[in-house]
Predict the 3D structure of the following.
Amino acid sequence: MMVRFRKIFLEPLNPYVAATLLAVGSVVFALLLAGKLWGITTGESQLGGHFMTALGYPATDLAYFRKFKLPEILASGPQVHVFGLLLGGLVAALSTGEFGIRAIPRGRTLLAAVAGGILLGYGSRLAAGCNIGNFWSAFPSAGLNALTFFGGVLLGSFATVRTAVEKGWFLSPPSKKTFTFAPRWQKVVAVALSAALVLLTVLVQPSLPVAVWFWFGIFAAYIGYRSRLCFASAYRDLFVRAGPSGRNASAIAFGLLLQAAIFTPLFLMGTKLDFSLASGQGQLQVLLGGLLFGVGVVLLGGCIFSSAYRAGAGHVTAFIGWLSTIFIGMPLLTLHWDFWYGRVPRYLPDTSLWSWGPGYGLIIAVLVPTAWLLYALKVDGRLPAFLSGKRRVPGGA
Amino acid sequence: MAGTTGFARQTKSLLSKRADGTYELDARGYTCPYPQLFAGAAFDILEVRARLEILTDNPSSCENVPVSIRNRGQKFLGVEPLAPGLWKIIAEKVR
């Protein structure tokens, strides 16, 4: 009994278990919110808009906020979701006794965290979505943007790994200090904080959408931290020559396929799901945004999702990246929105390929994630023998 | 490997050899993917049969570094917690 408790609540979660929980959670999230798919950066950019307003800038006059609106923070699901993600990371780290103010960047590492965060913010909103909205949710809904964004991110990640990372351009000796407190007390605080959040929800009685967004943020970040599931690692680590790893890529590809397996029959049966991708991105904007995002994700060492849960867990580099994303990168993009979406042509506006026909839908929802999964398994030497082309040696082990 | 030569210098500065012959790579404070890269560069420096212990306070590295060690064809021996939020990843250079 004790061993099982330790395994479930204290030891790192298997990444495939985490991907399964996140995939099922994403489906439940969509069903509770009338078909709305999970995304993070719309809410983050709105927080950036409130920051601009607080500084005296008339953000509501910008075309960006005429499109995405600037609702009051506590009445807006996507915005409270951002705090849910931070709190989920905090609860997860406290519950395992691992919370600590650590990874304090210095010199060029600090520069990389700020630059990476800015690029994540600018790139994700240029593409109108990050590794969640334009990837985790876009592949199962067979969005054209999933394919374009993935292409841009892989290109940006590859170029940055081969240059800045492998040549150590942004390496400065970091601080080795960690500020923490006794694991036993951390677990007490985790229980007290969780109880306080439940109580707060009961007392405030938010609308169902706001409550779902908030608690799904806590859930997703808890799973993310406990499993170390990281999209940045998934995009980057297949290219790291000194020690490639397909751990995160294979688990996330599995999660994409699992979502497709659940969402597709629901969609075909007529369940209301927001596969319309109404942001109206053109593929040039998505590709360029993905490219910048790919550079940023590697420089920061985290994606929109992982930088949020790590920031909550006390990871200072992630927190600085998270701040730069929301309060510098995204506001910058909102200032340039007119240019990117007014003057630059919108080639191939986004659409779900289900609208082209079932075969097209399956290419994005199933074939591309399958190819990525097989490649990641190949890198890790876990490809089944019948696919790897290796023949069993007679008499061998 | 041409792309990792910069890491050889940095890795040497983080490596120390203990009296029992075990090499210790102090990667505390570094975040992904650097502990992986340091581990990879350390394998280029160490002699065959050398035991390597990588100190990290980056939780993700406890998952990614073992996979990258195996993918380099080296032997991963385990991860041991040293203190809350601090781990030791143990490996052996086998070729």
